[in-house]
Amino acid sequence: MLNKYPFLHFLTLLLFKQKIKHMGIMSISVIMVTLVSSVLFISTSLQHTLQDTLAKQADFTVNKIEAGRSVKTPLAWVDKIIEIEGVSDVTPRVHGRYFYAPGEESFLIVGIDFFEEQSAKALQVLLKDVDLKQFFSTDSMIVGKGVKTFFQTHYYTDSFSFKTPHGVFKKVKIYEVLPNSLNLFTNDMIIMPIELAREIFGLGEDEVTDITFNVPNDAEWDNIISKLHLLDYDMRVVEKREIQKAYENLYNYKGGIFLILYIISLLTFMLILYQRYSMVYSNERKEIGILRAVGWSIKDILRLKFYETLILVITSFIIGVVVAYGYVFILGAPILIEIFLGGANLSNEVRLIPTIEFGVLGSIFLLYAVPFFTAVLIPAWRIAVIPPKEAMQ
Question: How far apart (Å, rounded) are the C-alpha atoms in residues 186 and 201?
Fold first, then answer.
């Protein structure tokens, strides 16, 4: 085995001598690591944000179904559900999509009973600065950032007139805009009193869109679902965990995300593999032959290539992750975020909350480093095992 200091000295000289080649490899590697890291950072951030929000939602939602489609839910169901033992926080809701006739845009109108305990608890963060007395002095609404921008673009600066199913226009004042930090969920949302939402959707006083409630004891969930189905055969029950699973399937490593990761990793492997196998016909072949001729063992050569590659891999990985962090959490991941949000109904500026998992970073490193080391050490070993005279030809 070679002495430690001559070995490190030669390694340093090798890195600087071939710096142009190394810079080219690092440039491609940084781009690949940045793309993979950006995709995983966006996915992880969206998953955490969604899960935190869903954790605060009601455990169950029920509504009425006729011929396979949702219809108006009778308010009388509230009393029936309250009578079931183990159920709490039963809340009727009125919500739905309001389509803007001149275009294809739509708003999600959510009617809230501001004085109902469960609703007030969910809205506490949003309404902490709202003067309810002033809010209820006239027909008012609280809108998301995307809705506000849309209204301003169409010259609705202070209010908007909704057309009810009876052909009557209802003018509603824009009271306040929801925080930008909630744009992922509230960008196209309008919050208003439940009575006003009923009027806009043409619902009667004894009708709602759906009913939500909680079941504190998780072990009772299946039993509660059975009791609910006995109340009315037209009742559809949706669990919170079903919604959580749907979002996991949407934002986890499936579909477009998995395809992007696969393409990027495949391109990374092929580029590095091609570059490293091509060295068999370059000056690097003679270099290995000379080292073998002056007394270097196969183990020494592989160790040299291992440390040379390790420096390139770690440097490229750190630079790529740092660039991805800045791109995603500082710049907001322009262009790439659209892959996750899809075709937005209204223009949305989502604020991604910095969320980093070491398991994710480990996955990125293995996805990048393993093919890199494989593509370097195998060709180096193939050259090192042949006679030095033949390698220098």
Answer: 20
Please state the domain extents for the chain: 4-52+250-391, 60-214
The answer on pLDDT for 255 being more than 50 is no
| In the predicted structure, residue 86 carries a pLDDT above the cut 80 | yes
Phi-psi region of 333 (alpha: psi -120 to 50; beta: other; left: phi over 0): left
Integer Cα distance of 357 and 51 in angstroms? 15
254-to-69, 248, 258, 350, 364 alpha-carbon distances in Å: 29, 9, 5, 22, 16
Listed residue (308, 319, 284, 97) closest to 200, CA to CA:
97
How does residue 323 score in pLDDT terms, banded at 50, 70 and 90? very high
CA distance 177 to 181: 12
CA 213 to chain centre: 27
Q: Give the Cβ contact number of residue 164 at 10 Å.
A: 12
CB 281 within 8 Å of CB 380: no
Report in angstroms the alpha-carbon separations of 148 from 172, 261, 312: 13, 36, 49
Q: How far apart are the first and last CA of the chain?
A: 26
> Rounded CA gap, 154 and 177, in Å?
17
Q: How confident is the model at residue 333 (pLDDT cuts 50, 70, 90)?
A: confident
Q: Report the number of secondary-structure helices (H) and strands (E) in the chain.
A: 16, 12
Q: Are 207 and 198 in contact (CB under 8 A)?
A: yes
- Phi and psi of 143, rounded to 5°? -115, 160
- Span 171-191, average pLDDT: 81
User: Mean pLDDT lowest for which of 67-76, 217-226, 321-330, 336-345?
Assistant: 336-345
Evaluate if pTM is beyond 0.85.
no
Q: And the tokens for 154?
A: 């169409």
Per the CB < 8 A criterion, the answer to whether 363 and 252 are in contact is no
| 43: Cα separation from own chain's centroid | 3
CB count within 10 Å of CB 113 equals 16
Query: Tens digits of per-residue pLDDT, 336-370?
Result: 787 777 655 666 667 788 877 778 788 778 877 88
